[in-house]
Amino acid sequence: MAYIGQSPKVKRLRVTPQNATPTNELEGDVFYSDGTVLNEGLYVRKNGVWEKIASGGTEIGIFPDDNMLINGDFFHDQRFDGTLQSAGLAYGIDRWLLSGSGTSQRVSVTGETFQFAAQSVTTAGTSLYRQRIRSDISFPQNGVELTFSVKIKVSSGSWSADVPKVRIHSADAVDDFSATTLVSTVDLDPADAGSTTPTGTFRRFSGTFTVNSTMATNGFHVEFGDFTSQTATNQYGEAHLAPTPADNSIPVFTLATKSHADELLKCKEYYREIGNSLIGAATSASNVRFMWTSDLEMRTSPTVAILKTNPTVNQVTSNFTGSSSTIAASFNLSPHSAGFDIDGFTGMTVDKFTFMNDSADEIVSLTAEL
Fold this sequence. Notes:
Layout (H helix, E strand, L loop, with lengths): L10 E7 L7 H8 L2 E3 L4 E5 L2 E5 L3 E7 L26 E2 L5 E4 L2 E6 L7 E10 L1 E7 L11 E13 L7 E9 L2 E12 L1 E2 L12 E8 L2 H6 L1 E6 L4 E14 L16 H9 L2 E4 L4 E4 L5 E6 L9 E4 L5 E4 L2 E4 L5 E8 L2 E6 L10 E4 L7 E4 L3
Antiparallel strand pairs: 1-2, 1-5, 2-3, 3-4, 6-7, 7-10, 8-9, 9-17, 10-16, 11-15, 11-17, 12-13, 12-16, 14-15, 18-27, 19-20, 19-26, 20-25, 21-27, 22-23, 22-26, 24-25
């Protein structure tokens, strides 16, 4: 087939089988879903592993390589909406874990092709950004080379003498990042002929690494920044991870999906906030039970947490405002539903229809992060 072997660059495509009907089960999977072309072969996901189909097919559509990093341009920031995130290992800008001693903030950018950047501020310390990539979207094949790239700018202060790096860890168990193993630390080289360390303008830096079998099976994370202590304000834009092209060029930045709207839906598979759309009933004078459902499934059953400790609810004609409200209980948790009780109210009528009547839509968070 014309498309087989043209380039080792990975492409996702939809194919029809050579014969009128698929000749085997794997061909059937490709006939009805997406396949992957890699180094003169066609692969499909089957029973948790990638398998090669020996026979070819007829190409009917090729799509550009996607970014393996969700929210690579730092556009979505559900938790903080551009406000400051304190230091410590925690999620901030959607899908990005902050680690190190510095703070982080999504900031607006002018004069560039992207709208936002992740800004870290450190004082004699490090501030690093990490994204965990789960097993079912990790690249399928052991031995495949990936290219990581990111634009970096030193807004104030100075970068340390060391070059920027990306560090790769594999998860020790499938999609379980409570324990990881260091795979490699890769120097990031400038795409231009300028300084080997970041300067006062946005410049792209990149490096390559090879997927091993544990990464492909369990998932892995990438973490980038300056791993040497510094005092600086640094900005990062358009982080990208994709298979290295055949000509060894740096892949052009793309989103993980087709648009920022689609990207937000991907972010909400891992984290989302809900509030004034909630409808429930009082189970006591102080407690309201709510049930959330959605057609958009989260990655797994979420953990429920309170975001606003003094929310206002309404029972037909009367408003009640909570005091030091908490999630008293959660139940019936699934990727597309969550039941929970919010306490801290007084004087409500039991079993009476109750709805969230608050100006904020960030009352409760649902978390299904890796």
